[in-house]
Amino acid sequence: MKVRVDPERCQGHTLCAMRAPEVFELSDIDGHSSPVAEEVPEEQQDRVIDAVRSCPERAISVV
Ligand code: F3S
């Protein structure tokens, strides 16, 4: 699984980082999220799906 955060959509709601803190990191500058790495470790995939569903801006996508 690969994960992306659309920087145009992300508004810094932080729910993704609460759901999957080992996958998403928040910028100290604007609070926006980005994946630590594009490839999601298998043991983190359920958390990432939860993060996708929780983002109110629909900023996270997985393939
Ligand atoms: Fe951004 Fe959505 Fe996370 S708005 S900080 S990707 S919950």
From TrEMBL:
Its cofactor is [3Fe-4S] cluster. The keyword Transport applies. InterPro entries: Fe-S_cluster_ET (IPR051269). It comes from Streptomyces flaveus. Keywords: 3Fe-4S, Electron transport, Iron, Iron-sulfur, Metal-binding, Transport. It comes from the Bacteria. Pfam families: Fer4_15. This is Ferredoxin. One of its GO terms (molecular function) is metal ion binding.
